[in-house]
């Protein structure tokens, strides 16, 4: 499966080869085949449990040193993959087709047969229509019972006319929705002067990178050629005859069940103005807008070896390159090849992932967990840790993007990405956690020569210092470029807070802890600036504390996740339960949420509703986060930590692993996303650390 520096590709082998043991534990584990792992001696303390956990997790390490994983969750990615492939004729292997159908069948909502915006969400028009269409393009008959049920749900929800904006876009590309039913997305926006606060280069990078190809395809009113299937779909997904739909009246028609961010008056006003412009768009201006956008798309493709920032713009760019460069072009062929990076075969079939993986993110946490707890010091784990260090060495970016400022990109020299070096985007906390992992490993392992030189670590420091905002916090990919008011024109209807890359407690903590660790080992480089950055970051963390005493997570679920990060930040300046009101409030909140069984469990719905919502079950990952948070706070009482550790140990299987529980991550407030490797990294970390911690409490 993994080949090269962290790229994942699933290859099909014959049953004979599978029987001949050509599959490793790594592959078997992820596709749900029984894995024959050793039954380990029962752990009698937390350290042994952590050790057993790693004995198993080591089996899932790829030969190149990292840990692959399924990065599933969003239900609006595979439709882009399939629609984009269908309209351009990009092939889909038969095995993949079958596995994708299996995935969607098994993920249909058991009650109404629909799909949500993500795997754990209620059925929506967005999820149900797009996945229904996907299944049809994958060759499933409209009269299949699963399709009949799903279609019933589409009709019950009012039909496809009320699909949110991104759905309208995909359906229009496929020619089963009229472009007239879309609000305007003119490429000319890119020609506005850059000093304007609404210039698209100032938008959060994912938003602008998606709107870029969207505006191209809208600008030319791209649509697939009509065929029988398209004509059939037009009859299946609506509640009225296709020809009689009043398309312009659909622009602001969004099903209530889908709406998370209703249009503001400002946005509606903007759309009205753009609508008038669209009626009399000046051809040379449109051409100039299209040319500009095409040039940016080309640069994005070349900067990322056709992987692109994420799965959504990836498939849209593929269509643009097919249209402009043609089916025989190198660009289109590279695009077709690179689709593979986003596919993952899981227990329930094949899906498209949120990125081309979470390689760096996963290796960073387990490396730190091992190095900090002493599990990595054990002779039996040395070789595996060396391989992790090697992977980190290769994954660091050592140059800036090919197209740098001209593609509105930030510097990357010295950074680590979220997934792989090929994808090549800097994310503040990934650069930070990558550097922390390297520091931990290089300082803790008996390495003769440190593969990552001081100079290369100084480059990371430069990147991190450069990315701090004037507010003291860190955003995700870039320093803040626009005022918060830009959120007033969030056109997505389904995602919250996507217009501006703002400060996040998680990113801020990672950045600041990385800089502090760096200072311990290299005390002279930009020391005063690091100290000043730390002070400003801590002020930001204080200001970001929620009224309930915790911190709201933006990338993990939810208060538990961000509170772990925030308390790590505060620990850097010596703020603990004993001496800090802020830390005490956070700990009291966590303690008040600890359950009878010793664990914690928070639902993904917290991220959407912005208030603590209990999950029906206790979660080992969140229990580990809460335990780590309490330890960062120097929480003085033994019992809650001991009970938390016991809960985690009680869920451990005889082979050292933990079963998969609820989904762990989130983005854009409404979409849950899976981090299945967290059930290893954070449990091992918490158990190893609590063992040492409880000793200090006596
Ligand atoms: C991610 C995944 C990682 C995540 C962390 C590093 C955990 C975070 O701390 C910073 C933001 C980041 C990098 C992040 C941003 C948004 C992503 C890329 C995702 C959640 C994975 C998928 C998501 C992306 C936007 C999905 C495509 C959907 C669109 C709405 C474009």
TrEMBL record:
Q: Write the Enzyme Commission number(s) for this entry.
A: 5.4.99.-
Q: Which residues form the Squalene cyclase C-terminal domain?
A: 358-690
Q: Gene3D superfamilies annotated for this entry?
A: 1.50.10.20, 6.20.120.20
The segment(s) forming the Squalene cyclase N-terminal domain are 60-304
Can you cite an annotated GO cellular component? lipid droplet
Its domain of life? Eukaryota
Gene Ontology molecular function terms on file:
lanosterol synthase activity
Q: Which Pfam families match?
A: SQHop_cyclase_C, SQHop_cyclase_N
- Which keywords does UniProt give here? Isomerase, Lipid biosynthesis, Lipid metabolism, Repeat, Steroid biosynthesis
User: What processes in GO biological process is this protein linked to?
Assistant: ergosterol biosynthetic process; triterpenoid biosynthetic process
InterPro entries in alphabetical order: SQ_cyclase_C (IPR032696), SQ_cyclase_N (IPR032697), Squalene_cyclase (IPR018333), Terpenoid_cyclase/PrenylTrfase (IPR008930)
Q: Which residues form the signal peptide?
A: none
Which SUPFAM superfamilies does its entry note?
Answer: Terpenoid cyclases/Protein prenyltransferases
Q: What's the family?
A: Belongs to the terpene cyclase/mutase family.
Q: What is the name of this protein?
A: Terpene cyclase/mutase family member
Say which species the protein is native to: Serendipita vermifera MAFF 305830
């Amino acid at each position: 499966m993994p080949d090269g520096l962290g790229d994942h590709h699933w290859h099909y082998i014959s049953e004979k080869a599978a029987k001949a043991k050509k599959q490793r534990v790594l592959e078997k584990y992820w596709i749900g085949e029984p894995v024959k792992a050793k039954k380990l001696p029962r752990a009698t303390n937390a350290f042994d449990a952590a050790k057993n956990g790693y004995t198993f997790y080591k089996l899932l390490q790829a030969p190149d040193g990292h840990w692959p994983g399924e990065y599933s969750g969003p239900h609006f990615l595979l439709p882009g993959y399939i629609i984009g492939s269908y309209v351009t004729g990009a092939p889909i292997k038969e095995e993949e087709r079958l596995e994708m159908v299996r995935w969607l069948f098994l993920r249909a909502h058991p009650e109404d047969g629909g799909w949500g915006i993500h795997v754990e969400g209620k059925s929506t028009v967005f999820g149900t229509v797009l996945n229904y269409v996907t299944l049809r393009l994958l060759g499933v008959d409209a009269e299949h019972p699963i399709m009949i049920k799903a279609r019933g749900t589409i009709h019950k929800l009012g039909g496809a006319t009320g699909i949110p904006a991104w759905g309208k876009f995909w359906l229009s590309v496929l020619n089963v929705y009229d472009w007239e039913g879309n609000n305007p997305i003119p490429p000319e926006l890119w020609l506005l002067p850059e000093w304007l606060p609404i210039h698209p280069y100032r938008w959060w990078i994912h938003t602008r990178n998606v709107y870029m190809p969207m505006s191209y395809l809208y600008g030319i009113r791209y649509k697939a050629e009509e065929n029988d299937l398209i004509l059939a779909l037009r009859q299946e997904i609506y509640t009225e005859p296709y020809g009689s739909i009043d398309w312009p009246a659909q622009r602001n028609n969004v099903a209530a069940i889908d709406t998370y961010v209703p249009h503001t008056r400002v946005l509606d006003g903007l759309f009205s103005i753009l609508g008038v412009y669209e009626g009399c768009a000046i051809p040379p201006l449109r051409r100039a807008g299209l040319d500009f956008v095409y040039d940016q798309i080309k640069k994005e493709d070349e900067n990322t070896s056709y992987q692109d920032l994420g799965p959504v713009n990836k498939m849209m760019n593929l269509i643009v390159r097919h249209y402009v460069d043609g089916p025989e072009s190198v660009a289109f062929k590279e695009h077709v090849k690179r689709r593979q990076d986003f596919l993952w075969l899981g227990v329930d079939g094949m899906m498209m992932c949120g990125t081309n993986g979470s390689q760096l993110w996963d290796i960073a946490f387990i490396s730190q967990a091992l190095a900090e707890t002493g599990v990595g010091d054990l002779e039996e784990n040395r070789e595996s840790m060396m391989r992790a260090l090697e992977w980190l060495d290769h994954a660091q970016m050592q140059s800036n993007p090919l197209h740098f400022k001209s593609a509105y990109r930030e510097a990357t020299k010295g950074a680590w990405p979220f997934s792989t070096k090929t994808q090549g985007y800097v994310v503040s906390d990934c650069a930070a956690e990558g550097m922390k992992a390297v520091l931990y490993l290089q300082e803790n392992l008996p390495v003769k020569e440190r593969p990552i030189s001081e100079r290369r670590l100084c480059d990371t420091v430069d990147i991190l210092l450069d990315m701090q905002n004037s507010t003291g916090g860190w955003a995700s990919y870039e320093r803040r470029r626009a005022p918060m008011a830009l959120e007033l024109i969030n056109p997505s209807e389904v995602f919250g807070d996507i217009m501006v890359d703002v400060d996040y407690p998680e990113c801020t903590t990672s950045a600041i802890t990385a800089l502090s660790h760096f200072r311990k080992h290299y005390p002279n480089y930009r020391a005063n600036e690091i100290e000043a950055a730390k002070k400003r970051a801590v002020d930001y963390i204080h200001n970001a504390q929620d009224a309930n005493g915790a911190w709201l997570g933006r990338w993990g679920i939810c208060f538990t996740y961000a509170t772990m990060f925030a308390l790590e930040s505060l620990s850097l300046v010596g703020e603990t339960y004993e001496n800090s009101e802020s830390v005490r409030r956070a700990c009291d909140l966590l303690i008040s949420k600890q359950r009878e069984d010793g664990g914690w469990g928070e639902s993904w719905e917290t991220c959407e509703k912005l208030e603590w919502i209990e999950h029906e079950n206790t979660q080992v990952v969140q229990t580990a986060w809460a335990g780590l948070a309490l330890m960062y706070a120097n929480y003085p009482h033994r019992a809650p930590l001991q009970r938390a550790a016991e809960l985690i140990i009680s869920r451990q299987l005889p082979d050292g692993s933990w079963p998969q529980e609820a989904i762990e991550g989130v983005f854009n407030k409404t979409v849950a996303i899976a981090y299945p490797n967290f059930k290893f990294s954070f449990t091992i970390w918490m158990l190893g650390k609590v063992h040492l911690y409880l000793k200090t409490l006596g």
